[in-house]
Design a protein that fits this description.
Layout: E1 27-29, E2 32-34, H1 47-61, H2 74-80
Antiparallel strand pairs: 1-2
Length: 92
C-alpha cells in the first residue's frame, strides 16, 4: 500500500485572515439562505395591525426578485384564516 507523505502548508499560503463582522451561523431552508425575524405584539396592539405593518414595511424595502418574505408558524395559520365578524362567530 502506497501512502503519500503528509504535507503541511502554512495557512498564509492559501488564505488571508481579515477581521470582519458577519453572522455566527448561516441558516438555510431547502438549501437557500434565510433569516428569521421574531417579535412580540406591543401592549394594546393587535395581530392584524402588526401583520399590516410588517407587510407594508416589506413592500417599502423594494426587495430584489430573488428575495422573499413569508410568515411561519402559528401566525401563518392565523393570517390565512378568513376573517369573521361577531355576528357570524358562535362560541359555546
Amino acid at each position: 500500500m502506497y501512502r503519500q507523505p503528509r504535507w503541511h502548508v502554512p495557512l498564509a499560503n492559501v488564505a488571508s485572515l481579515v477581521p470582519a463582522t458577519g453572522p455566527t451561523k448561516i441558516e438555510r431552508y431547502n438549501r437557500v439562505r434565510q433569516i428569521m425575524i421574531t417579535g412580540n405584539i406591543a401592549k394594546g396592539g393587535s395581530l392584524s395591525e402588526a401583520l399590516q405593518l410588517l407587510n407594508d414595511t416589506v413592500k417599502e424595502m423594494d426587495l430584489p426578485v430573488e428575495y422573499s418574505a413569508a410568515l411561519v408558524g402559528v401566525v401563518r395559520n392565523l393570517a390565512a384564516r378568513p376573517r369573521t365578524t361577531a355576528s357570524r362567530c358562535c362560541c359555546r
